[in-house]
Design brief:
Elements: H1 3-11, H2 15-43, E1 54-59, E2 67-68, H3 71-76, E3 81-89, E4 103-106, H4 111-114, H5 122-130, E5 134-138, H6 139-145, E6 152-155, E7 164-172, E8 181-184, H7 185-191, E9 197-198, E10 200-205, H8 211-221, E11 229-233, H9 234-243, H10 248-277, H11 279-287, H12 292-319, H13 326-329, H14 341-367, H15 371-376
Parallel strand pairs: 4-8, 5-7
Antiparallel strand pairs: 1-10, 1-11, 2-9, 3-4, 3-10, 5-8, 6-7
Helix pairs in contact: 1-12, 2-10, 2-12, 2-14, 10-14, 12-14
Length: about 375
């Protein structure tokens, strides 16, 4: 007997039940794939190689607390500090309150020397420096809203109780910041009545080997001040910002575990029904010489086939998100859907676990039933 054909025919004996089970597993593992991808993206932010030169200083108490602008000159005078600029998240709303893109107030002169991977033309850079209400945006953001140089836009304040009228004076290119908008910190400071405070400073070191020493020097200098600081590398700072959302790893991990466990129960119930309906056939197989081990493996093979088909379906559905506008859906946190090898391994591993466990217990029960007991079972 062709065992592969035997497994195939048994799996699709009840086509409706098998189809619904495959769909259930597929959509469940699709959800798992999305959660693993989001978790990896949030916990492992993509950074440019220039990030090794950069640090960000914020209040030690919270990123929401602010520091005096007077800190800037003190940081600038430290050894091995090449550039330092204010870096204030404005969190303004433009048109659609459901889509808040990153809006940062900074120094228009220095920001391009700190983020050298962000490219802007010399004339637009000069216009940004000269125009008090000027703003420059990443190319993707410009295309999304159809902005042109010279357009006027209004950002409605959420964190700050002011609305800012800005003029688009240029665009810049950057792989990691295509949906970012910069405007002048001095304009925000004036709008807030010259409050002379900032949420963060972005710092560029002359060499990556000095980053640790600079971090210790800054925090040591302000340790006993009313606004003590915490200085991190760029990657650590981004992770700290993500931590404001809560324990993302625990939340997504818990939901993923519940999804897999629930699907395991569904698959196990389906396999139990399928084996119970064929218990007399199992008795016949044992009568003609099939061992208990072979019976167990035939049932597990059927469960594995159904589960892995569902896993393949889930991955196929997940791949369609590569063409989705994830930047808009996630408000800039995830520019694109790009699962990594660990995510694929996790989804396939979940499919294998569901197949093995859902098939093992019904198979073990059937294999250990006596031939006479199985033959007496009613359909």
């Amino acid at each position: 007997m062709n065992l592969r054909r035997f497994v195939w025919r048994n799996a699709f004996r009840n086509k409706r039940r098998t189809g619904l089970t495959i769909l259930s597993i597929g959509f469940s593992l699709f959800l798992l794939m999305v959660m693993l991808t989001v978790r990896d993206r949030l916990l492992n932010p993509v950074t440019h190689e220039e990030a090794a030169f950069r640090l960000l200083t914020s209040r030690s108490t919270s990123l929401a607390d602010m520091m005096p602008m007077a800190y800037l000159d003190k940081i600038r005078r430290l050894p091995n500090v090449e550039h330092v600029a204010p870096f204030q998240w404005f969190n303004g709303i433009y048109r659609d309150p459901d889509y808040i893109f990153p809006t940062m107030a900074t120094d228009p002169k220095l920001i391009w020397d700190i983020y050298t991977e962000q490219k802007i033309s010399p004339d637009q850079k000069a216009a940004f420096i000269a125009e008090r209400v000027g703003a420059v945006a990443g190319e993707d953001l410009v295309q999304r809203f159809g902005w042109k140089v010279g357009d006027r836009i209004t950002l409605i304040g959420t964190i700050f109780p002011v609305d800012l009228d800005l003029k688009i004076v240029g665009t810049f290119k950057s792989k990691q910041a295509q949906n970012l908008l910069y405007f002048q910190f001095d304009y925000l400071n004036e709008a807030m009545g010259n409050f002379d405070k900032v949420g963060a400073f972005v710092i560029k070191a002359t060499n990556p080997e000095f980053v640790s020493a600079i971090s210790q020097s800054i925090d040591g200098m302000f340790r006993n001040s009313p606004a003590a600081t915490r200085t991190d590398t760029e990657k650590a700072f981004v992770l700290g910002f993500m931590a404001m959302l809560g324990n993302v790893q625990a939340i997504l991990g818990s939901v993923g575990g519940v999804v897999v466990f629930t699907m395991l129960l569904v698959a196990a119930s389906m396999m139990a029904m399928a084996v119970r309906e064929r218990i007399r056939e199992v008795a016949i197989l044992k009568t003609i010489g099939y061992s208990r081990r072979m019976v167990v493996w035939l049932v597990i093979a059927e469960a594995m086939f159904i589960s892995l088909t569902g896993a393949a379906l889930g991955i196929a559905i997940g791949e369609t998100l590569r063409w989705a506008d994830m930047d808009k859906i996630t408000q800039g946190f995830i520019p694109r859907f790009a699962p990594g090898p660990i995510t694929y391994a996790g989804v396939l591993g979940a499919g294998i676990v569901i197949g093995l466990i859902s098939g093992f217990f019904p198979a073990w029960r059937a294999a250990n039933m006596t031939i006479t007991g199985a033959m007496r079972r009613q359909d």
